């Protein structure tokens, strides 16, 4: 009999992930701070939980996918948190992107109650979450990683055990440095194409499949050209991740000048009220500097 799964956090990523667990045949009990977000999942066959503790009490494996470090602490360790409902031997999988250091602290508190934990941040945008093709980077004990594989396989395609507790979060921060670097390169390239007077769609076709191609360019350049700012990942969440990157780099003494610059460019977008747009809206920071727009 497959293990019962709890899912906490039904945002832009979580709702697709929970739906794929249902499609894979898992019994899924869900909870979200905004209760209305549970309704579409309940319509697909999920059970509605009353609190994170309630979800944990009815589950063998509990997945959390929430916005930031304090949110994870709240749903796992808070007054009605997972720790108060989970049975010894159960497994908590955190798919949020949070501080590696805090991840290790949470894992220690769960271990005191006999509860296992994996940190399993994800990459692939809302498309990957909906399609079950996420990249999942996992830190924690190897036997718990194996235990969780059927769950991971329902949600993702590239599933990698990268090391001990907290390693998943560190690898996700590495991932985010690459994401925003690719994003800035894409934006600069499209600015040059626009100024040079070439057809943007033909330019995209010419370069996207060669050495200049990337997931970011393939998935987000068409959105920029159409001026479609719907988020696969919001500016606000990208900034949250970059704060974690800068904090980790500071602790480790790593120079990351390019990433620091991109953080400041995103800050100009936050100041202009673009926080809930997709992270590809980074191009607006360059447009504001240059005085012209791309596409449209």
From TrEMBL:
GO MF term list: NAD binding; NADP binding; oxidoreductase activity
Residues the record marks as active site: 172
SUPFAM superfamilies given in the database record: 6-phosphogluconate dehydrogenase C-terminal domain-like, NAD(P)-binding Rossmann-fold domains
A family per Pfam: NAD_binding_2
Key word DNA damage present: no
3-hydroxyisobutyrate dehydrogenase-like NAD-binding domain: residues covered: 166-286
InterPro entries, A to Z: 3-OH-isobutyrate_DH-rel_CS (IPR002204), 6-PGluconate_DH-like_C_sf (IPR008927), 6PGD_dom2 (IPR013328), 6PGDH_NADP-bd (IPR006115), HIBADH-like_NADP-bd (IPR029154), HIBADH-related (IPR015815), NAD(P)-bd_dom_sf (IPR036291)
Domain 6-phosphogluconate dehydrogenase NADP-binding: 4-163
GO biological process: organic acid catabolic process
Keywords of this entry: NAD, Oxidoreductase
Family membership: Belongs to the HIBADH-related family.
Protein name: NAD(P)-dependent oxidoreductase
Provenance organism: Litorilinea aerophila
